[in-house]
């Protein structure tokens, strides 16, 4: 058997494998003898079928199986030995085979991974947003707490400041969502006035355009997606099912103890500090995710290299359960190209910075995750044996191991980017962060 490679260009190659009959004849002979022993052919006793008849019926199929096995084994071995970094899988070049010949030649097209450099320190426009809980947010949270723990009273008729529970509907837009709202908070004061004097069972029709200062609030109350909500200008019906007023809870020690445990907080200032601390922990996760997304986008846009596009489109046609047309493959390639580029960039970054994941790291990460989850259910001091038992069960699940591995490696990549990517830091409120994120 002989294997040669012809590099068509930097991104494409053709591997030729020459197979002689002698390479697979013993295996074919052995398989045919097994067929002869077990064949059930009318007119012959089992095991007494003439070899000429067995060969006529089975030889070509057996040869095909053996040749395919040899090709697969030796092609994979060749790719490993040559350390070829390929994209997709080798594509066999179809040709007529003369099975009566003494040797055969088979060609395989390869798409080669491009050579390129990733400059993490290059100038870019990535910003890391440090989200702070500003006074406006803290005051709103304190008011929300007072309202949540205040005394609720059912009312017959709506007045400004009351809450109303009901269902927003619009059949054409398939909107049907039950919420509790405070019409006094509408930016559109004409819409708020429509609720004055309304009673349980009444239907109030309002327009969505400009209902809130921030369309994301409209997205929440109507349960419509982000793309649809911006500029949404429709009438919606609100059927009132309940009207309530609230007497705010006093900001006293009794409330503080109920919220944070006895004696842990003794003033409104400390309440705000606790709210700020918890909120900014959550904000940090969102800021990190946006930063990771923005660095990814920047690297894909600024790291230039070519791909073996023609090869990949041809491969995409054959890789699924159902073959695709050239037009469908073109569309699929367009959808997946950025993801493929980032996979190559990510692999390069991991290799050049020796980012690796050990079993002990994964186990420790899983253990901490489980402890946090147990704490949420009141198990603050689980035994090591309990935690280790859950870790063992989790890590016996390959899907979970894959998911957790991606999370740990994601954190490693994030920390590396924070260290090496030139980044501007911008301090913003959460409201400003939402506008920066969604461009609104």
Automatic annotation (TrEMBL):
Its EC number is 5.2.1.8. It is found in: Cytoplasm. Residues 1-145 form the Trigger factor ribosome-binding bacterial domain. GO terms for molecular function: peptidyl-prolyl cis-trans isomerase activity. It comes from the Bacteria. NCBIfam families: tig. This is Trigger factor. It comes from Flavobacterium ichthyis.
């Amino acid at each position: 058997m002989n294997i040669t490679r012809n590099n068509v260009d930097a991104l494409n190659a053709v591997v030729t494998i020459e197979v002689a009959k002698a390479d697979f004849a013993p295996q074919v002979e052995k398989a045919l003898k097994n067929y002869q022993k077990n064949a059930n052919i009318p007119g012959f006793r089992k095991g007494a079928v003439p070899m000429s008849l067995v060969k006529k019926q089975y030889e070509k199929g057996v040869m095909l199986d053996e040749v395919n096995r040899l090709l697969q084994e030796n092609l994979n071995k060749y790719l490993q030995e040559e350390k070829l970094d390929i994209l997709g899988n080798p594509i066999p070049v179809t040709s007529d085979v003369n099975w009566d010949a003494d040797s055969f030649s088979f060609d395989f097209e390869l798409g080669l991974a491009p050579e390129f450099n990733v400059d993490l320190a290059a100038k870019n426009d990535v910003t890391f947003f440090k989200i702070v809980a500003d006074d406006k947010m803290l005051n709103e949270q304190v008011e929300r707490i007072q309202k949540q723990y205040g005394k609720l009273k059912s009312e017959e008729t709506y007045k400004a400041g009351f809450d109303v529970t009901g269902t927003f509907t619009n059949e054409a837009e398939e909107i049907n969502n039950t919420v509790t709202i405070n019409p006094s908070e509408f930016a559109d004061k004409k819409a708020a006035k429509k609720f004055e004097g309304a009673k349980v069972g009444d239907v109030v029709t309002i327009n969505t355009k400009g209902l809130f200062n921030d369309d994301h609030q409209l997205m929440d109350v109507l349960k419509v997606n982000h793309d649809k909500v911006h500029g949404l200008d429709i009438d919606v019906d609100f059927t009132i099912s309940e009207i309530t007023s609230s007497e705010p809870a006093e900001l006293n020690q009794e409330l503080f103890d109920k919220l944070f445990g006895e004696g842990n907080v003794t003033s409104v200032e400390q309440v705000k500090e606790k709210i700020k601390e918890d909120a900014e922990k959550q904000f940090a996760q969102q800021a990190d995710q946006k930063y990771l997304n923005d660095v990814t986008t920047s690297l894909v846009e600024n790291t230039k290299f070519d791909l073996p596009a023609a090869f990949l489109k041809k491969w995409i046609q054959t890789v699924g359960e159902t073959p695709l047309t050239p037009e469908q493959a073109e569309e699929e390639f367009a959808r997946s190209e950025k993801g493929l580029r980032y996979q190559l960039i990510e692999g390069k970054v991991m290799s050049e910075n020796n980012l690796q994941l050990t079993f002990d790291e994964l186990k420790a990460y899983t253990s901490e995750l489980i402890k946090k989850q147990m704490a949420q259910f009141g198990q603050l001091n689980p035994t090591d044996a309990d935690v280790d038992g859950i870790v063992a069960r989790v890590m016996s699940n390959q899907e979970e191991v894959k998911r957790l591995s991606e999370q740990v490696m994601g954190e490693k990549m994030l920390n590396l980017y924070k260290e090496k990517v030139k980044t501007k830091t911008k301090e913003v409120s959460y409201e400003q962060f939402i506008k920066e994120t969604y461009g609104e």
